[in-house]
């Protein structure tokens, strides 16, 4: 039986855990808010599931609990942020707010980030400019290499996600959030914890054979978008995103990437990039949003294949899941609950449930 736990309870639990390991009350609250938002949106591999790993890295000195997050370099429409090895959620919150402020003046702003850490799902940050009626774009270098160059077997690339959020007028915003691999590695980790198998097409071993046991993930690699037939497309996208989010910012890329699943002590120097675009800089912002509405309705109302009940827009399923989980609570599989209760005992906190 799967329990359902309220978002408020999860936020309080996560914040208490961070307080216990030396993070300030305000920062603990901000991290917990963003982390549980991932659970609400259905990004289960990026939410409270990551709490034990984050706390472990903090306790072993792999993350700075009191970072000096700052702008190192800037012009009117760009900035380079140094995260001082702080929690990725805090660093990216700072970067997103910087991009939004600059876009209000310049119409568009690109903010690169270095010396950060894992920050959860890409959509958390791409959607932040939506509050100001802006378009948001986010890129990142993943925190472990699980992807080989197309045709190779050496793991030199990561899942390197991209997210784009576009505001609408009356409809829900378009929110695309995707890894450049067929599945994010967080899904592999959650499948392993739950004792599930992976679908064919997620991973292959180093001889090119399908790998479906997530507990054997170290014996293979993720497949890029496009799979066995057209994976060169996903490989190329992963490479370019890594260059933009990592190399451009003097952050880790390629052989420099630290596997934060296995190394709790070394600073990961995770790279991100966020872009904020103000539609008003291009013309009538309301007209733009109205046009987005019209396109959404055209797509949703278009003819579908036999057996297809509904054509979904990017982000609609996550919004539906969020509404459901706010009402009914976040599902908590028994293995995850056991992991969190074990963490609570280690930190001297009461059990989650």
Q: How do you describe this structure in short?
A:
With 353 residues, the chain is α+β, with helices and mostly antiparallel strands.
Furnish the topology, listing elements before pairings.
Blueprint: E1 3-5, H1 7-20, H2 25-40, H3 51-59, E2 70-75, E3 78-82, H4 88-106, E4 108-116, H5 123-126, E5 135-140, E6 162-166, E7 174-178, H6 185-194, E8 203-205, E9 210-211, E10 220-222, H7 227-245, E11 270-277, H8 285-300, H9 316-328, E12 330-332, H10 334-347
Parallel strand pairs: 3-4
Antiparallel strand pairs: 1-12, 2-3, 4-11, 5-6, 5-11, 6-7, 8-9, 8-10
Helix pairs in contact: 1-2
General description of the model:
This protein is α+β, with helices and mostly antiparallel strands. It contains 10 helices and 12 strands. The longest helix has 19 residues. The radius of gyration is 20 Å and the shape is globular.
Portion of residues in helices? 25-40%
User: How are helices and strands ordered from N to C?
Assistant: EHHHEEHEHEEEHEEEHEHHEH
**Low-confidence residue ranges:** none
Tell me the strand order in the biggest sheet: 2-3-4-11-5-6-7
Q: Please give the count of helices.
A: 10
User: Strand fraction band?
Assistant: 15-25%
